[in-house]
Specification:
Rossmann fold; 425 residues; five-stranded antiparallel β-sheet; globular; Hypothetical Protein Yjia, Chain: A,domain 2; alpha/beta
Length: 425
């Protein structure tokens, strides 16, 4: 398939990216933003909760990014979507495609309707289609708990990504595909891992029977959107540096005690003495944590965390997190060990790990390889592990983890990454 480039005299194509909490929408969005497809992308990100995080999880900073907070895009902030689109028009020469990433709690029907009800919006934008990312591991519980949302997201899709296929059996995948087909027989469906899909299929979706789908999917919107009433968002914003060992144990306790009620969790935190952000994301009991971009010089390090779920103990989560903040002599030293240890990590050891990575995986000799220790938050694993990030041109960064401290890493540990790059994630 060829990917047609648009000009500013043509309407900008719009792709709505939806899917339940933690399905892999941001991963797909990052792939789109870093791929070499010739598109000029603008992004609208919607979050549920007053603390914005999703826009900071995006890899690329070269696109126009508009963020909307504190409401489900299908309910209270649809007017904000219209205003955001008008805001983008002020930079119309800078993009030809708009990606609208909805919160995982959104019905895409009213979002799509927004591109039909305003004459100027219709003249400037054309809805290319809706992409729904489905979490193969948790889709059954999602449909059971919030059937009107998860089913609507699937029903309205032009393209469905049955994602995280490596977490379930082939038989389970067949059953899931049959269930999706029973909801939406018109959508194109791909089975994916880590939201990997041919982007040509995404950019060239045919938006079939939009008016018919809109009318079919949205008749219940006069009921007040009760799907948000049982769900709460706990938003934490705290300055200060965190003790890496304490934050590791705190995450484990939160998952163990409240994981069953947590639908989605995400955050960006500052570890003591670490020049880089530490990013975590989770859905239900599955959790991912990794290093992020460096803090800018002079930037205030603010920890921002969001937990979305039912019957969450906000006081317990808040107090537990505050106890992870390093205080007194423990904090604010760029030379301090993030985990409070009195050790020295040799640059020779780090260079040796970099050499092994390039030798074993045949990465380019000039490819940047970042090696650092991070908290491990999964119960039963060591509290400290080594994260290795390889930056390749035209690709999202590749992440590897070894469940050892840097000083304990051997050639065999690196070699084993061929079979198991993320042993505990």
């Amino acid at each position: 398939m060829s990917m047609k480039e648009t000009t500013t005299t043509e309407r900008a194509q719009v792709i709505i990216l939806t899917g339940f909490l933690g399905a892999g929408k941001t991963t797909l969005l990052n792939r789109i933003l870093t791929a070499n497809h010739g598109r000029r992308i603008a992004v609208i990100v919607n979050e549920f909760g007053e603390v914005g995080i999703d826009h900071d999880l995006l890899i690329s900073a070269d696109q126009e990014i508009v963020q909307m907070n504190n409401g489900c895009i299908c309910c209270t902030v649809r007017g904000d979507l219209i205003r955001s689109l008008f805001q983008l028009l002020e930079h119309r020469a800078d993009f030809d495609t708009v990606l609208v990433e909805t919160t995982g709690l959104a019905d895409p029907g009213p979002v799509a309707q927004s591109f039909l009800i305003d004459e100027r919006i219709r003249s400037e934008f054309t809805l290319n289609g809706v992409v729904t990312v489905v979490d193969s591991k948790h889709v059954w519980s999602e449909i059971g708990e919030l059937g009107s949302i998860a089913s609507a997201q699937i029903a309205f899709a032009d393209l469905v990504l049955l994602n995280k296929t490596d977490l379930v059996t082939p038989e389970e995948l067949d059953a899931l595909e049959s269930k999706i087909r029973s909801i939406n027989r018109l959508a194109t469906l791909y089975r994916t891992r880590n939201s990997e899909v041919d982007l040509a299929a995404l950019f060239e979706m045919s938006n079939l029977a939009l008016a018919q789908k809109t009318e079919y999917t949205s008749p219940r919107h006069g009921e007040g959107h009760n799907h948000l009433k049982e769900i709460t968002a706990i938003c934490l914003v705290e300055t200060g540096e965190l003790d890496g060992m304490k934050i590791s144990h705190w995450f484990r306790s939160v998952i163990a005690e409240q994981g069953a009620n947590i639908m989605r969790m995400k955050g960006i935190v500052s570890l003591r003495g670490d020049p880089d952000r530490f990013i975590f994301q989770g859905v239900h009991m599955i959790f991912e944590a990794k290093p992020g971009d460096p803090w800018k010089e002079g930037e205030q390090r603010i920890n921002r965390l969001v937990f979305i779920g039912r019957s969450l103990d906000a006081e317990q989560i808040t107090q537990g997190f505050k106890e992870c903040i390093a205080v007194g002599d423990e904090s604010c030293s760029v030379y301090a060990d993030p985990f409070g240890r009195d050790i020295e990590i040799s640059h020779f050891t780090i260079d040796q790990i970099r050499y092994w990575m390039k030798q074993i995986f045949e990465f380019p000799i000039d490819a940047p390889v970042i090696v650092k220790e991070v908290p491990c938050v999964k119960s039963g694993c060591p509290p400290i592990e080594t994260a290795i990030i390889v930056v390749l041109k035209g690709e999202p960064p590749r992440l590897f983890k070894i469940q050892r401290t840097i000083n304990e890493v051997t050639f065999d540990h690196v070699y084993n990454l061929i079979e198991n790059p993320l042993p505990c994630c």
